[in-house]
């Protein structure tokens, strides 16, 4: 197969090329969307106001149908949330870049609505023992990652659904770094927990674009024309012959269709029960699981490594206790250590200071004690402990690569799934979640008999 989507967060070009910041924004206007009827019955009940739920509600409203958008927390955006209090400037606790700006539907919307988008540097830096790597190290690293990706891709393309780690060739001195890039950094899991089929289907991601005011605030802006029922926790769904009933802490909401836009982890944990869910869908919920990935964000004044703003740094790893560094967010003193997989889970499970302690250990090891000593305030996200996320993003367990498709089907004529986990090639991303929400809404509207002419694109 020649057109297999090729996956990598880095590329030789990305490492070696220079960067240019292209302004992507232009002015546009937001539309006010949808009225929710006072009656308890709507056309579509949407559970979860993350990217997928927001996209779904906007599409249902734009088609002139009624919706109820239920959100367990006090805010929209889910795993896209911008904080401004910790560091006194916008800091994205979850999603922070929009991959593939040229094809990313959210970039298009951002462009139309006047979001302050700007390109990420397209060159990442590589460090070995505290120094920037030599040209030959860059070549060796990139070639190890490429060889690994090709091997996993070949297994996936051949329909062999194996633990991705099992099909890797010997990647030599760069094996630990390549395993980190392909595993925890991309899939939020170690490669022995990753399906070769799921990996091989994932779309390539580039360095992407940032939003000056934060990706989370942008997402909140997209929710602002909608009526969201906050602090409304859906506990269970009853799929009746004519209506779906959603039981919440604030009473029952009925709809002709229901879109479940919460992570599968929530269903798997029994927090949202869907009795009589057919086996195929139950299996998808159980085996398309969320991995762990967190930011350990920190003030690092004085720019000790002389890094450019928003630059990503990879280091030569000796083992799995490794990380990536995102430097000088938006030109500030704030940096992020990116941790994923087992290490991220261990740190999230640990003492409150576990993230800060690892930060010190990692910076000292890679860049020296004096650089590590300059660290100021630290904030460690713990997405696996967030009660309405319970993880970072999804990746199919080995053997479950083909199950993801189940999340794109209509269940019992009444229920649809949406969310990053419900996109076969863009899983793990914000735009994948958004696109899945639009897809689910379109399917729901079709079930309701809305013709193609009335479906907003
Ligand atoms: C640290 C981190 C960094 C990331 N970085 C990037 C990045 O840079 N770029 C990128 O594209 N992606 C990134 N991602 C992934 C991206 O954030 C997710 O793919 C995306 O936000 C998922 O959106 P969603 O709508 O599927 O789910 P969510 O955003 O999780 O939305 C689900 C919503 O449902 C609500 N909910 C849950 N249970 C219930 C219930 N029972 N009743 C009512 N409501 C409920 C939740 O509160 C939440 O608001 C990152 C993720 C993490 C954790």
How many structural domains can be distinguished in the coordinates? Answer: 2
Number of H/I helices: 14
Question: What's the CATH H-level homologous superfamily of the largest domain?
Answer: FAD/NAD(P)-binding domain
The CA-CA distance between the termini, in Å, is 30 Å
Return the CATH class of the largest domain.
Alpha Beta
* Helical content class: 25-40%
The CATH topology of the largest domain corresponds to FAD/NAD(P)-binding domain
Number of E strands: 20
- Secondary structure class reads alpha/beta
Radius of gyration: 22 Å
What would you call the shape? globular
Largest sheet: 7 strands, mixed
Low-confidence stretches: 1-32
Task: Please explain how this structure is put together.
The chain is an alpha/beta fold and 457 residues long. The protein has helices at 12-16, 51-62, 105-113, 135-157, 175-182, 184-187, 196-201, 215-223, 264-268, 279-287, 341-349, 354-367, 369-373, 430-447; strands at 41-47, 67-70, 82-83, 91-92, 117-119, 125-128, 131-132, 209-211, 228-229, 234-239, 244-248, 251-260, 288-290, 293-299, 312-315, 324-326, 334-340, 378-380, 394-396, 415-417. β11 and β12 (251-260) form a beta hairpin. α2 (51-62) packs parallel to α14 and α4 (135-157) crosses α5 (175-182). The chain starts with 11 loop residues before the first helix and ends in a 10-residue tail after the last helix. The model is unreliable at 1-32 (pLDDT under 50). Flavin-adenine dinucleotide binds next to α2, β14 and α14.
